[in-house]
Amino acid sequence: MxxxxxxxxxxxxxxxxxxxxxxxxxHMLRLVHxxxxxxxxxxxLHLTPSAVSHQLRELARELKVPLLEPQGRRVRLTPAAHLLxxxxxxxxxxxxxxxxxxxxxxxxxxxxxxxxxxxTAVGGLIAPAAGALLRxxxxxxxxxxxxxxxxxxxxxAAGETDLAVIEPTADAPPPGDPxxxxxxxxVEALDLIVPAAHPLTRRxxxxxxxxxxxxxxxxxxxVCAHHQQVMTYCAAAxxxxxxxxxxxxxxxxxxxxxxxxxxxxxxxxxxxxxDQPVVRVPLTGDAVPKRRVLTCVRxxxxxxxxxxxxxxxxxxxxxxxxxxxxxxxxx
Length: 331
Fold this sequence. Notes:
By secondary structure, this protein is α+β, with helices and mostly antiparallel strands.
């Protein structure tokens, strides 16, 4: 996969035989709009704020319209800049399509293929998929990064990754965002995990509200969105969980449950040490907690040979305990 910083450096677009525009500068403007400040955009691009400001001034000079205007100590995009961004999204998507077509003609593509995703997606999907790809093509280079969905979307926008496995959240961009192409991957139920000797392991059907009186173990709220999701699921079941302990890793949660310190709610992609006396109890009833998992790439890049191979490998890596998500569920 070509490095985005390199190909944006050399790509130029001629507009109406009058302008010669560096698409790298359009990309910078798009990131300033996304992150809200020149400093944040520069950090995403691994550049200095002065370098980004200079490039945007050059873009404004080339186009003969102001693109940024002061707003207190910050800057805001002008109406002309917003208009340009609408076209920039389409231009950048077409560039991704051009790269895809070029790559399809290039023999022996060896990457790097860059993938990222949240913790359980990396452990349960991305790592098995990457392993399968490498076994089939030892020359392939794969780079994996573990991160939350909001960080993954920023990496995609900045060209720092090629494929993200995401969980839709309030912070994720809407399905209609013109920069990205999202597709459904799977839906997974969340299970209750309890100590091996817990009475709930002997019941034929367990509802979430059956654990209302238990001490609960939660993921630390600042680690990921899982804590808030657990609170939401329990509220829907009619109770507020009594959070007795907090952790930052699934292995610690497994250890706390195994030693009788409480129960927890975990997604099916999550797993813990096999030697811990913990039982995963599938929940029943009308409101079984579930979450959707999607793949996301930059618009125009989904048919890239490397990305297409990665997407197929992710499909093959879906464990039997999870359900494939129908296409219409992505919206």
